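Researcher: Please translate sequence to structure tokens.
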Amino acid sequence: MPHEVIDQTLSTMSAVLGRHGGELARTIQPGAGLIAFSDTAHAMQRNEEPPVLDWVPARRTMLYHRPLSGAHPLYYIENWPAQGNLLFASELKALLALGVPRRLHLAALDALLRYGFIPAPWTLFKDIHIVPAGSILRWQRAKTVVNPTTDYNLDEPSTQRDPIDYLYSQLAQATSALLPFHEQLAALCSGDDASILVTLLATQHTETLFTLAILDYHHASNIHKDVERIASRCHRPGLAITAVDEPAFWIATLTGLEAPSVDTRPLALHQLLHTVAAETGARVVLSGLGASTLCGLGLAQAAGESEQQDVLSGYSQTLIPRQQNTFPLWSQEATSMLRREESWEKSLHARKLARQAARILDKQRRQYYLDLHLRLPDLLVGPAQQLATQERVAIRSPYLSKEVLDTLTRLPALLPNGTWKEQLSTTLLQRYLSYRHSGTSHASLTIPTTSLLRPGTSDVLRQTLLPATIRATGIFSEQAVEELLKRRTVSRELLLVFTTQLVCQLFAVGL
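Model: Translation complete:
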């Protein structure tokens, strides 16, 4: 492609982006990226991360590298509208606006039900993929290739004499680097030690009177007391947010998430981020995102895994134990289509991941490795960033910085001094900040949705769960949905049906 065409295209893009504010930083020099048109509100004190998107004119090559943390998701479609084309965007909505095919990926829905999230590189749309965390997408001379490029070094233990001291220093530096240049800042403090540590570290590096926000659906007094105690120590205001069980709120959540859900975590996170942005005007929020997974908290033992059992099947069992329903969830048409589709475990990316995981003999370490590659990017980091973007907010966590990520994943479950890896945040708080948590409870990013059991009380419910609507979509069995509603509990299956039906309406997608 001639240099003049590239320059003209970038100039046109700049003109469009310029209408929405921001600051231009464009270059087409090798290794320096395609185009950067950023909102200055999202600038940080220091950013030493390499660019994720590069254009190399001499080789006519576009490169995109998604970090291992799962930050900066990129969606793409190959060979559309013509052979050799590559369309990519940070949101599915941008691709859909161009008229790309909107075919529902039933096998992705099945994977969502089994894993609790849609594993990369799949999305809800059959023709659109997402670059997996730690992978590189290369488009060169009309050919697209996606391959793993970086991985965790679990077999290379940290050589630091005092890894706890080293980790604290890294977290402090990372927190300082993530701070914005302005005062539109907030901190999401769930009451757990990881988020408390980030909040206290932030107060050491900025005079900004940022707000400490917490989602407290159950009005737990001990959580309020903990947050009030932290706010008092930080000399910062606190904001307790009460989540609302209203089906209509799912519309905004799923619009940002761009996928169905089998739990209420996205709904809770949307309400938290939306309220924080609306009440405080924050453009950057700090959090402890990813800390629980990186420290191995709640790591399930892969018990019952036989030698013949597939590594990924054993892993999915630890996430969501299989339940035998007495009725089929899918319609006859969908069931027939699923039988012809390849499962996620048989995809090329999944098979590569399974081979790498199978080399780890210890079941707990294998589970940890898969958590890092699947739960961290596909369940936690990617969706959180998407929901934050919808509110024009940048969500940042020092635990996801490259250096901290590398240190935490190298540490063993039990450190030489007898400290358990799961207790690292607690240890850091006590050793360096003389802070002892007053309680063990913390706010949960899940909220009840009993309103789904009252289909006659909401226009949204009437449009999604009525037999005629279920039949028109053709994905789920009418009898199955009726049985789920009779159970009087909001199960994963019912949430899958409701959110899938709603997403199909929002994005005009069908079988």
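Researcher: Any highlights?
Model: Residues 3-148 form one domain.
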